[in-house]
Amino acid sequence: MHIIDLNGRKKEVTDLDKAIQQAENFKDMHHIPPVESDKERQAYWRDIYKKLVQLKSK
């Protein structure tokens, strides 16, 4: 199974539960103090998380 990330790249998912857990951890991470790239990175991981959860619900 696979998902397509925000950059249009196909990402293979071999362990869906582990991938969801990892994306959940990364989606809200940020530097202290926050840096501009944090917003971009968080948007990426939130998108990945959403797509993984949708994949699991199918």
Automatic annotation (TrEMBL):
This is 3-isopropylmalate dehydratase. It comes from Parapedobacter composti.
